[in-house]
Structure prediction request, 29 residues.
Amino acid sequence: MDLSGVKKKSLLGVKENNKKSSTRAPSPT
Prediction:
């Protein structure tokens, strides 16, 4: 797995989560 790819996916996931529910955003592991 590419660290950069994982980081990008994680960042995207976090951003999407924040957009959907800015009240609770589970940290991507």
